[in-house]
């Protein structure tokens, strides 16, 4: 923290040592939330009162693929002219590639922090005091595609959520997501995945796949889940703001799929 301000006076807010956050609030209630991390939907969040929040990760994907195209062009140019270029020219191309990688990492980290801030503020207002955060098992085992393994900084994303949650006194526990999308959260039977992110349960109801994942995370952690899910709140994560989505059709979710 800063002890001396630009005017030479001592700062009112002094932080010494290795402290990474300052407590700014305490939980307003004792509600529980579960978070399922993904790609198209960066996060699907469900609260034990039935609140459901979706965060779209489209900006992160756009940044990644745009920067990767630039990096690939430079790499291709360097490799094709490797025997014709001077060492200084090759060094310049390598430097440009490193610069672009660094820029991509900074942009993604900025998105992660914007998302974490908005998410925790929303959950704080809903009275959440405990979060169960899904740990993406398959991605951690490097079984994803190029996008998930090489780009998606899930650990940075999880750290951003955990640090921001500490500022509000919200506890965060990591839960392995293993098979959370494979089985119905209400009936514990294997589901069939259909287009547009919908899973069909043999008992006759449908769920958004990311909602099903978040519900399973909550069930694994607490042993219970809400029976009625409210209409989703959906947001797009941008570099300068978190904006509500407009005119989007969310896959139908059965309102009361009782076991």
Short key terms for the protein model shown above:
259 residues, alpha/beta, Nucleotidyltransferase, domain 5, seven-stranded mixed beta sheet, three-stranded antiparallel beta sheet, globular
What's this, in brief?
The protein contains six helices and ten strands, in the order E-E-E-H-H-E-H-H-H-E-E-E-E-H-E-E.
Per-chain topology:
Layout: E1 31-37, E2 41-47, E3 52-56, H1 58-80, H2 87-125, E4 128-135, H3 137-140, H4 146-151, H5 154-167, E5 171-176, E6 192-194, E7 198-200, E8 206-208, H6 209-222, E9 233-237, E10 242-244
Parallel strand pairs: 1-4, 3-9, 4-5
Antiparallel strand pairs: 1-2, 2-3, 6-7, 7-8, 9-10
Helix pairs in contact: 1-2, 2-5
Task: Give structural notes.
The protein is α/β, with parallel strands linked by helices. The protein has a domain at 31-57 and 116-244: Nucleotidyltransferase, domain 5 (2-Layer Sandwich), CATH 3.30.420. 39% of the residues lie in helices and 19% in strands. The protein contains 6 helices and 10 strands, in the order βββααβαααββββαββ. It has helices at 58-80, 87-125, 137-140, 146-151, 154-167, 209-222, and strands at residues 31-37, 41-47, 52-56, 128-135, 171-176, 192-194, 198-200, 206-208, 233-237, 242-244. A hairpin with a 3-residue loop joins strand 1 (31-37) and strand 2 (41-47). The protein is globular. Residues 141-145 have low confidence and may be disordered.
């Amino acid at each position: 923290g800063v002890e001396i301000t630009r005017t030479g006076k001592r700062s009112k807010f002094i932080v010494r040592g290795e402290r990474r956050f300052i407590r700014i609030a305490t939980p307003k209630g004792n509600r529980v939330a579960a978070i399922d991390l993904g790609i198209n939907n960066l996060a699907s969040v469900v609260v034990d009162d039935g609140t459901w929040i979706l965060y779209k990760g489209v900006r992160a994907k756009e940044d990644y693929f745009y920067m990767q195209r630039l990096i690939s062009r430079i790499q291709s140019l360097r490799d094709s002219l490797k025997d014709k270029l001077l060492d200084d020219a090759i060094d310049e191309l390598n430097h440009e590639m490193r610069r672009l990688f660094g820029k991509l990492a900074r942009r993604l980290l900025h998105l992660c922090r914007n998302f974490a801030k908005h998410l925790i503020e929303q959950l704080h207002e809903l009275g959440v005091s405990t979060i169960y955060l899904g740990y993406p098992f398959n991605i951690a085992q490097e079984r994803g595609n190029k996008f998930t393994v090489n780009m998606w900084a899930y650990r940075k994303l999880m750290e951003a959520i955990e640090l921001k949650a500490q500022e509000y006194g919200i506890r965060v526990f990591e839960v392995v997501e293993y098979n959370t999308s494979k089985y119905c959260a209400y009936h514990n039977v294997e589901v069939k995945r259909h287009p547009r992110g919908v899973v069909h349960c043999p008992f006759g109801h449908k769920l958004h796949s990311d909602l099903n994942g978040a519900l399973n995370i909550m069930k694994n952690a607490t042993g219970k889940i809400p029976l009625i899910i409210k209409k989703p709140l959906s947001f797009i994560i941008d570099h300068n703001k978190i904006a509500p989505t407009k005119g989007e059709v969310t896959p139908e979710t059965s309102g009361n799929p009782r076991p």
